[in-house]
TrEMBL record:
<feature type="domain" description="HTH cro/C1-type">
    <location>
        <begin position="32"/>
        <end position="68"/>
    </location>
</feature>
<dbReference type="GO" id="GO:0003677">
    <property type="term" value="F:DNA binding"/>
</dbReference>
<protein>
    <recommendedName>
        <fullName>HTH cro/C1-type domain-containing protein</fullName>
    </recommendedName>
</protein>
<dbReference type="InterPro" id="IPR010982">
    <property type="entry name" value="Lambda_DNA-bd_dom_sf"/>
</dbReference>
<dbReference type="InterPro" id="IPR001387">
    <property type="entry name" value="Cro/C1-type_HTH"/>
</dbReference>
<dbReference type="Pfam" id="PF01381">
    <property type="entry name" value="HTH_3"/>
</dbReference>
Length: 85
């Protein structure tokens, strides 16, 4: 099974764009209604945002989702656990 996740194309450009607006990462997070630690993890590529969060980030910067994020296909292992009786 393959799923698609979003990753930030250019983290440094997002940081610069925030600074041009007079904002730091924590300010951006607060403006879009997410935790600063979560926003930082998304920007640093440690976590992938869901579609709603990606849209909020894109809207904040006045961009389209495709301008900020790229899609990554991730292959998931699917295993079935045996029932224990």
């Amino acid at each position: 099974m393959t799923t698609t996740k979003l990753k930030v194309k250019n983290p440094q450009e997002l940081i610069r764009a925030a600074r041009r607006k007079g904002k730091y990462n924590k300010d951006v997070a607060n403006c879009i209604g997410i935790a600063p630690a979560y926003y930082s993890s998304v920007i640093n590529g440690k976590l992938c945002p869901g579609p709603n969060t990606a849209e909020k980030i894109a809207d904040f910067f006045g961009k389209k989702i495709d301008d900020i994020f790229f899609e990554v296909s991730v292959k998931k292992n699917t295993t079935q656990k045996e029932k224990v009786r």
